[in-house]
Each structure stands twice: as structure tokens, then as C-alpha cells.
Amino acid sequence: MPPRITCYGGVGEIGGNKFILEDRGVKVILDFGTGFSEGSDYFDSSISPRGVNGAGDLFEFDLLPQIPGLYSEGALQNTNVEYTEPEFDAVVLSHYHSDHTGRIEYIDPKIPVYCGETTSLIHDAYSASTGSPLRGHPIRKFRTGDRFTIGPMEFRPIHVDHSIPGAYGFVIHTSGGTMIYTGDFRFHGPAGSMTKDLVDSARQEKPKLLLTEGTRVTPKGDSAGMSESAVKKEALKMVRGTRSLVFSTFRGNDVDRVNTFFDACLETGRRLVVSMKVAMLLEKLSADRGLRVPRVGRDVDVYLRRKKTGKFDDSDYYAWERPFIARGLTSEDVRRRQGEVFLHLEAWNFPELIDIKPDRGGTYIHAATEAFNEEGEKEETLIRNWVEHVGFRYAQLHASGHAPGKEVGELVRTISAKKVVPIHTEFPQLFGQFNSERSWVLEPPVRAKAVSIGP
Ligand SMILES: [Zn+2]
Ligand SMILES: [Zn+2]
After folding, report:
1. What's the pLDDT score for residue 135?
2. DSSP3 helix / strand / coil % (the chain, rounded to 5)
């Protein structure tokens, strides 16, 4: 049987990547994430799958495939599926976003996880704070330039630019030829040239199959959108035009965004203040010499939320939080220095504004994706209500983690693989428009149906 790839997620949807690659009896899982809208017909913030049922509540709605030899004993407890020894040799992870990692928590921890060195540092930071789905698995680290083999397959990880550090695409040599998996990518971030490295290597391989993301391949087409440097330019203008507090919602693990706002602070004499969770992440990532990361204490401060007694006693905090207490800024500190602070504040922490009581006339920057579904719209309304309540102006400022459709098309044409399997997109059929030479076959993936690599 020729080597083959089967998609169990990321099919006609953005995120939820779950692929199984098989070659001569060796089985590798490529990403195993949670889809963004996966299960939203049955579960939401008020109805969640029960922990006691392991993966059982997800099997009920076909949100996880029932595959033998894949899941842990804990995941199968109280389900109809019996635990058997692992039949998989590895999980290979492209990057640490939940739509690629989220369901790894159900996988048998005897199966090792291969990930980039930076990803393993992110995993360390979250393991020490709020938890990581990779917990318990042996971690095998790689960097760009490495090659590793799993059975008959050789993997060559190549860095790409994305909205989290340590993102990779892969050149994979199988017994039936070479395939490329792009992971998530963009060209318009600070390290866009890294994605070009993947495209160059992939093209030279004359691959049989290309598994590529297409988040922004849509029927309307897509405007070029903002680059990260444009975000910085706009942010600078906003911060310069604000006398009182600036606060912003953005993903703390988007280190490019952290640097963008850190730079805006450097140029305007403000201090960037982040949550303890982000501070923990920055501390761990500072071990990565290939990354530019602001230092906690020297470059950025930590926001100290009141918890339990509200008196900042050590016992109010988890052990991992305690080292940050002495260096923390309280709501009162932020109020006193509001003209000198740029505060990172996630929406769920907005009640802190009640304590901070900032002067009216400040600026709020929503530095995240704009609402694209009903739930997002509801959250945006809440955010706008809070911003209006404190009398701030609302600004939207964001650079996507994904390449616009046009650039995805250029990538597909340049690599010119024999078969193209579009994943991580709502519109796989649209990839047909990228076929100029008719030298390849479009294979819109079908859930649980294998596509062979090679002939
Ligand atoms: Zn993704
Ligand atoms: Zn991603």
C-alpha cells in the first residue's frame, strides 16, 4: 500500500487540524487540535464535555475519531472504547496554537511529541502556570536544519512566520515520494522571509503532495490586510495621542505583538504591563537565543490582581505566581501612573478596570481578530460596553497570522506539487483557481478518507 494521509479535522474548517500519516505500518499524527467552531451545536461556554467521561462526550458527536491505539487510558475511561497499547509512533506538532495542540491531551502519553525548541519552552511555561495539553508526553525537540526519522519517513522541519514563535512547516520524505505540510503561515510578519525558506525548499523537492492551509482563501477575495509593522506605526500614533491609560487585548503568546507594543512603549516612555501568565511565558522564552523577548522586571512589569483575601498575601496566590508579587503593579499603582502605562488586559480581566478607575479619555486597542461569528460579536459588544463605561476610545488594530488568499495561491503555484490537499480553510474548492499549468490534481479532503502520496 502506498503511503497515505487521512484528515480527521481541518476539513472544510479553519483549525482543528488532525492528520494521520501512514507509511509501511508506521503511523504518525500531524497536529491534533481543537476546531474553532467544533462542537458548537452541542457545547458552548455554559455546556461543556464532562471530564469524568474522558473523550466519551466528544465521541458522541464525532468530535474525535474513534481510532484504536491512539488514546490514553484516562481518555477512554467510562467510554465504550477499550484501551489498547499505542499503535502510533509519534505526534509531530507544527506550532503551539490550540487548533493544532488542543486534543493532544487525549492522546496516549506513551506516544512521543516532536516539536520545535521554542514550542517546548511555551509548553514548559504553560505547564508551570495554567496547564498544557502536551503534559506527560516525552518531548523530542527540533530546530530548522534538523532532520529526524520515524520509521521509513524522514522529516525536515523548516521555520515559518506565524502569530506565535516556533512555527514550522515540514518537508516529509516517504517511501512513495515527498510531501509538504505547511502548518500555518504568513509572509507579512517580522520574519516573513522564513516562510520563503519553506517555499524554496518545498519547490526544489518537486513534491508529490502539498497539504496547505488556506484560512484567508475566500470567495470575496481578501484585502492585503495590515502588516505587523503597520500595526506598530498606528499603535505609536494612538499612544502618542493619549494622555491617560492605554490598555489592550491581544494574545500574550504572539511575541511579535508583545514586541510591537513594547517598542511603542520604548518610544513614548511608557511601561508595558502584562499578566502573570504572560510574564511566566516571557521568562521561559528568554532562554531562546533566536528570539527577541522583553525581560520581565527590566523591560516589562507585571499586573498584580487581587485574589482571595484581596490583601496580596502570598497564600492568596499559586506557587508559580508568588515570585511575581514583589515586582507586581497593583490597580492603585496603575491608576497613579496611568499616563505612563500600557496595560495588557484580556477581556475576562476587564473587571480590574473597576479598581483601576482610569481617567476618561484613554485609549483601548483591540489587537485581535475581528468578530467572525455570533459568539465573537457578542464578546465584541461586551468589550465595547466596558470601553464606553470607562469613557475610552475603541480602536481595532491587528495583523493576521495567515497569508491572504493571493499569497497562498502564489505558494501553491510555486511549489507545484502533483496533488494539492487544501486544509484549514472553509473553501477548499477555491484552490482550483490557483492551478495555472494544470499539472496537479485538487484533492479537497474528505473526513477520514485517505489520500495516497505518490501515484
Ligand atoms: Zn491554525
Ligand atoms: Zn496557528
Report:
1. 97
2. 30, 25, 45
